[in-house]
Amino acid sequence: MKTHDEAVAAAAELAAALAPGAVERDRNGAEAIPYEALALLDGSGLLAITVPAEDGGPGLGPSTLAEATRLIAAADPALAQVPQAHYLLIDVLAVHGGGELRERLFADVRAGRRIGNALAERGGKHAQDLKTRVAGGRLNGVKYYTTGALTSAWIAVSAVGEDGRLVLAFVPRDAPGVEVGTDWDVIGQRATISGTATFTDVPVEFALDYSRAYEGPQQLGARAQLVHAAIEVGIAGGALADARAYLRDKARPSTEAVRAGAGRAVEDPHVMYRYGRLATRVRAAESLLADAARTLDGIGRVPADAAAAARGSLAVAAAKAFGSEVAVEAGSELFALCGTSSAASKYDLDRHWRNARTHSVHDPVDWKYHHLAAWELADIQPPNHGQL
C-alpha cells in the first residue's frame, strides 16, 4: 500500500477480521497466544506504512498511523498495542540507524516481520535505572512489559554499554540466550502478553547509541505517545459502539422510564442524555487525536528546533490525557446506560474498562496536564524524553 486511504482501508479490513475474536482473546489472555490474529496483523501490510520512501516504504505519516491504530483498537486494543513499539523503533532507525542495521531491518519490516521491544525493567529506582548490560559483544539482563516480543522477528533491547551510555541492541527473537515468557497476568490488555524476557549472553551484531536520540530536539516520544493516544481513543469508540448496539438491540427500559412514557430503552430521556454526552466526548477525543497527528505531520521526524518539538509533544499530550480519561469513562458509563443485564459475563463488556484502565496507566497522564499548564502559564517547555 502506498497511500493514506489504502492504509486506512487495510486497517478497517483488519479490524473487521479481529473483532469477532476479541472477547475470546481477552478471556484467554496469556493462556492462548493469538497466533492467527497476529498473522493477520503481520500480513496486512500495515507494519511498513511508516518506513521511509528512501528505504522502500510508503513513508506515510502520523495521521495515517493514528487513524489506522484507532480503527484496530476499537476492535481489539490489545492487538493494536502489539506493534506500538514497532512503529517507535522504525522512527529510531529512520533517524539514527545506518548501514547494514537499517537495510536489514527495514527489509524485514517490508516483508511483514515485526520488531518487538524489551525496554522496561522492574526493581530500579526509576524507569531509566537499567541493570541490563552490553559488554564484550554480549547482552545480559531481564526485561518486563515486553509487548510484541513474544511473537516478533526482532527484539530491540535497551541496555547500558561499556562506556556507560544507553544503547539499543537489536537481536533476533530466536537468537541463542533469548527467552520470552508468558507470565502476563493483568486485568486488561491481556492478549498483548507483555511478559518477562531474559537475555543470557546473547550475541549482539546490531546496536546503536540510544542516548543521543534524546540529546537534542526530537519527536520520538511524541510519535510513540500518539499511538498510545490512538489506542485509548479507539477503546472509547469501541465501548461507545457496543453501548449503542446493546441499547438498540437488547436493553429494556427501566421501570422509571416506562412510568415516564418510554417504550424502549433508547427512549429513556436519561439514557439519551448520558449517551449523547458520552458520544460528544468520544468525538472530542477523536478530534484531539486527529489534530495532534496533523501537528506531527507538519513537524516531521526531526523537528527544526526545540519550539517545534515542544509543539508536537504538547499536542499529543493533550490527546493522550483526554483520550485516556474518556476511554475509562466510556468503559464504565456503558453499564449505567445499558443496565444490569449488560454486566452478564457472556457479553464481556467489562473488557473495555479493563483495557482502558490498564493501558491508561502506561505513563502518568497527570504530568501531561502539568506540562500543558506550565507552557501556557509560564512558557516552560516540556521535558525532552520518550514519554512526552
From TrEMBL:
<keyword id="KW-0560">Oxidoreductase</keyword>
<dbReference type="InterPro" id="IPR036250">
    <property type="entry name" value="AcylCo_DH-like_C"/>
</dbReference>
<keyword id="KW-0288">FMN</keyword>
<dbReference type="Pfam" id="PF08028">
    <property type="entry name" value="Acyl-CoA_dh_2"/>
</dbReference>
<dbReference type="Pfam" id="PF02771">
    <property type="entry name" value="Acyl-CoA_dh_N"/>
</dbReference>
<comment type="similarity">
    <text>Belongs to the DszC flavin monooxygenase family.</text>
</comment>
<keyword id="KW-0547">Nucleotide-binding</keyword>
<comment type="pathway">
    <text>Sulfur metabolism; dibenzothiophene degradation.</text>
</comment>
<dbReference type="InterPro" id="IPR037069">
    <property type="entry name" value="AcylCoA_DH/ox_N_sf"/>
</dbReference>
<dbReference type="InterPro" id="IPR006091">
    <property type="entry name" value="Acyl-CoA_Oxase/DH_mid-dom"/>
</dbReference>
<keyword id="KW-0285">Flavoprotein</keyword>
<keyword id="KW-0503">Monooxygenase</keyword>
<dbReference type="Pfam" id="PF02770">
    <property type="entry name" value="Acyl-CoA_dh_M"/>
</dbReference>
<dbReference type="InterPro" id="IPR046373">
    <property type="entry name" value="Acyl-CoA_Oxase/DH_mid-dom_sf"/>
</dbReference>
<protein>
    <recommendedName>
        <fullName>Dibenzothiophene monooxygenase</fullName>
        <ecNumber>1.14.14.21</ecNumber>
    </recommendedName>
</protein>
<feature type="domain" description="Acyl-CoA dehydrogenase/oxidase N-terminal">
    <location>
        <begin position="9"/>
        <end position="112"/>
    </location>
</feature>
<dbReference type="InterPro" id="IPR013786">
    <property type="entry name" value="AcylCoA_DH/ox_N"/>
</dbReference>
<feature type="domain" description="Acyl-CoA oxidase/dehydrogenase middle">
    <location>
        <begin position="123"/>
        <end position="202"/>
    </location>
</feature>
<feature type="domain" description="Acyl-CoA dehydrogenase C-terminal">
    <location>
        <begin position="226"/>
        <end position="364"/>
    </location>
</feature>
<dbReference type="InterPro" id="IPR013107">
    <property type="entry name" value="Acyl-CoA_DH_C"/>
</dbReference>
<dbReference type="InterPro" id="IPR009100">
    <property type="entry name" value="AcylCoA_DH/oxidase_NM_dom_sf"/>
</dbReference>
